[in-house]
User: Fold this.
Amino acid sequence: QVQLVESGGGLVQAGDSLRLSCAASGRTFTSYVMGWFRQAPGKEREFVATVTRSGGSTYYADSVKGRFTISRDNVKNTVYLQMNSLKPEDTAVYYCAADLKTTAQAMGGRRDYEIDYWGRGTLVTVSS
Assistant:
């Protein structure tokens, strides 16, 4: 079992930057593909970014390409989401996710019940 704890959310203005962190428990962190998803009010949770087990490859939703960067530190058991040029439409609760069996490329297309572990989320609010 893995526990995920997100942090770094807050209230910012459009154009600002923010970095989210996801701390994972356990000694098998490198066995998991990691990802970030987000859920805006009244909408379903959507894929944001994923990273391979080694951190060598990343995948992004079209809406965040060029603005967001996902990375992982396998020594600290932590995944990050660097968010630049934030827009009001980025406002959402951001969730960290971990999955043992999937690939980073495929993780973004998986439903909530298909992903092994989820954090409780951290709220990002971007004002115009």
